[in-house]
Amino acid sequence: MYFLPVEAKLDVFKCLNFDQLISIQHVNRHFCALINEYEGELARKEFFSISFVDSNKYFNKQLKMVKTSVIEQFQLNDQLLEKWQSAIDEQIPLYLFKYQQTHPKKDFFIILEEDDCVTSFLRLWLPLFPKNIEEMKIIRYWLQRLFGCFYLNAEFRGVIFNPEMVKLLFNGHKTISIKFIVGRCSLSLWCFRPNKNNVLEFRKDHIIELFHD
């Protein structure tokens, strides 16, 4: 299969589900790059919802914790390395959230609900302020995974991903979609008064809502 033309490989990949594609990405660097390049044409993992919870106020042992110790095979050039290090030094946050001015160091879990029966959840923790380049790579890896899924409901009422950080992590990459594909999105502007323009930018550049009320 390695020597097949790209079109033939894509035909094979289109027959696989999301979990099978992820397995292939983990064992073959060539296929990983190809799947990343054409991920918009391939299967997406489906979730009932994506939301955020304050990690200091909410903890449920029944939620499965997603391991984040994955370092992406992503090569940084000197220019991007300098930009990333500057973001670390300036403490550019991964999230924007309400009351950020008075509580600037909150931590959040990303909650992925797999169905509407309130029985199957995944819990993902990513640092608000990445401390080093390795953590930046981990955040980029998981954001790419999240962007590659479909969510029937997206709850961004009090927390969103910082569009400045998203753009910095992906640096204008042409073949990776940095948009959440959602059925319906809940996003309250009043929660983000100091960051209203950033929220509007996040909505415009990073959300595709399929079902409008």
TrEMBL record:
Family matches, as PROSITE patterns: FBOX
F-box domain span: 1-46
Xref: InterPro entries: F-box_dom
The protein's name in its UniProt record: F-box domain-containing protein
Organism of derivation: Meloidogyne hapla
